[in-house]
Predict the 3D structure of the following.
Amino acid sequence: MVSKAISATHREIMNWLEEVKDPEIPVLSVVDLGVITDITVTDDGIHIELTPTFVGCPALDMMKVDITEALTSRGLPPPQITVSFREAWSSDKISEKGKAALKKFGLAPPPSATLVTDIDILEHANCPRCNGTNTELKNPFGPTLCRSIHYCLDCREAFEQFKPL
Amino acid sequence: MEHLALKELLYKMADDLLILGHRNSEWTGFGPLLEEDIAFSSMAQDKVGQAQALYQLLHQLGEQEPDTVAFTRNAEQFHNSIFTELPNGEYDFSLIRHFLFDTADALRFNMLSNSPYTPLAQLAKKIQGELRYHTLHANTWIKQLGNATEESISRLQNSLTTAFPYALGMFESSPYEQEIISSKWFEGEEILRQKWLESVEAIIAKTQLRLPDVTLTAPVYGGRVGKHSQHLQPLLDEMTEVFKIDPTAEW
């Protein structure tokens, strides 16, 4: 491809990436999810560093395709996307806006992972529907790698939580 | 020579994860209850993904692409412990293996998170965080079923007795063990085995199960040097079936 000067700024790219959603959680953008850990714009192109939530996350390839699409649809060359473990992703990287979107979606946002010194904290999820605290952990594994399954004894509904990691 | 030692270390970890990941996936659709079906399927996904990331590190060290490495080697080229390739058996055996293996793997990646080989240390730190969910799951069920009914206790006990010599086989020393230890890439299998035994004993002590006497148990070695049981080749045949029909297929 003939390289042309890239006029997009870091901020513009971030804004466009806001439109790229986690394929498994369609209310959460990759920016709010905290997986976009670096954007470099040079004359040679756009370089994006992607830090996966889980090593085996199957949504990663789809995210790469969607990120590429978001930029090429604006006339930019396809970015170079690197998957990195330089700094491990943590659920604390989800933005406050992202956490609110999760809760609205019916998925309990993760409690701060820095507080999770003992994983037993998983037992104490707050129900995203009725805000009940009288809940129990049904399964540390859920429909996707990043979710656990809980039951609310207050409103008697099962719910899922985005796991603290 | 240094690279050979490092590659051997990466291969055995990746192969353990790929093979046990595949075994875990065999529970998909067959779990004794829905939650366990989901749990073993999720752990399968984690493990195969972690294996792929380790194969990617090997690729950076000059080995073939992850898919090529995973799908085109013969049984004798795999470095996984025999323990991971044994058939699932009934749920009690799978649960005991999950407990014994993941306790070791969580400790292994914990030790490796300090490795001076940075790409491995970074990945180990990440995997270690994920494995906390695997050990939480295993410990919960071992404690519950290890204290539940006469049947659950005797089933787990039988599986524990059967699994134990194979589990000790996970710590078969590498042909490059001294080099790996002196280069500080990894503290070595013997230290890992001691830590593992301590952790396993601490959980078993909370149940009505008894751990076989380690001093009277002969470990089942061979997997790390490519000498496998009759169970690995059929697993590989199944795992590579689609790839062999059409290596360029995408799915």
In short: The beta strands of chain A are 21-22, 25-29, 36-42, 45-50, 80-83, 107-108, 135-139, 147-152, 157-162. Chain A touches chain B through 24 residues (CB under 8 Å).
